[in-house]
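Writing this down once: the sequence line spells out the residues, with the fold written below as integer tokens. I am pasting one below:
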Amino acid sequence: MRFLSAHDVAGQLAARIEPLVRELLPHGHRESAEWVAPSIEGTSTRALSVRITGSKRGVWADFSGVGRGDALDLVAHVLFRGDKKNAYRWTLAWLGIAAGGAVPSPQTPLRPPSVGPDAHERATRAAALRLFLSAEPMLRGTPVDHYLAGRGVDLAELGRQPRALRYHPACRCTEAGADLPAMVAAILGPDGKHCSSHRTFLYENAGKWLKAPLRTAKKCFGSYAGGFIPLWRGGSGRRLADAPETDTLVLAEGIETGLSIALACPEFRVVSTVSLSNLGRIVLPAQVLDVIVAADNDTGNPAAEAALNRAVDRLLAEGRRIRVARSSYGDDFNDGLQG
């Protein structure tokens, strides 16, 4: 048998990464191109993401930024507390490649009994909150400030920055396999508590800050069903839970669209629903009765129109007054602001 380098072994593991992560991290679940799992200790303080498709398969990272590496590093991290030598020997046996000597026993149980769906949810929420809190709260002069200005949103003109937005200079991007600058937004759940963190990855080109040229430049960390990003409190200045009946609430899909509306109509309360699908699940206080849905111009997209109609029907069934508004220019109100 020819000698296999650690790089060769990691490559063979990457080719079989999905069965590997299902064995190493059985309490995880698939989210698009990644396998997301709670920490190996079963605590609520860390969680892992492993790429399982594409050219980056096998690459993993700890959500808190503590650890990362290739598939062999993952075996060492999960089973042998970082001991790559024992991980190498265990991997040869797992791959069915002959190797001399006894197969080392894992130092960490493969199935920690304390980990369950609730623990996983708590771990993900805690890691998402930690990510948001690790970002810089002041946006003035940061790449986020310049990015928004390039989209026509001048925070100085708005008068104050939304507290839900922050700047992170080195946010882990699994798709890029690197740390990238990002605008990080806090998503609040129906209970009013932080449940997820939204990331818009950025890059600089010719002195301008733009969305990073990725397949998915915007991504959420954690479940946000029914939640929202609070962008502007409108004329009352109160939080959404305490909003008076006289408030008009604008529901915008994207952050940039919502900020554009806040600039044009500062008397309105504005939140981002993150996605069109979540618009149909957002949970609003009973006293918020006057709602404007700032819809994107999805003309020619029957699925998007159907989702919008379902969301509007649900809000109407809750006894709210609903108006649907669309920009007269471009795809959304941010295009309208720039155009």
Summary: DSSP finds eleven helices and 15 strands in the chain.
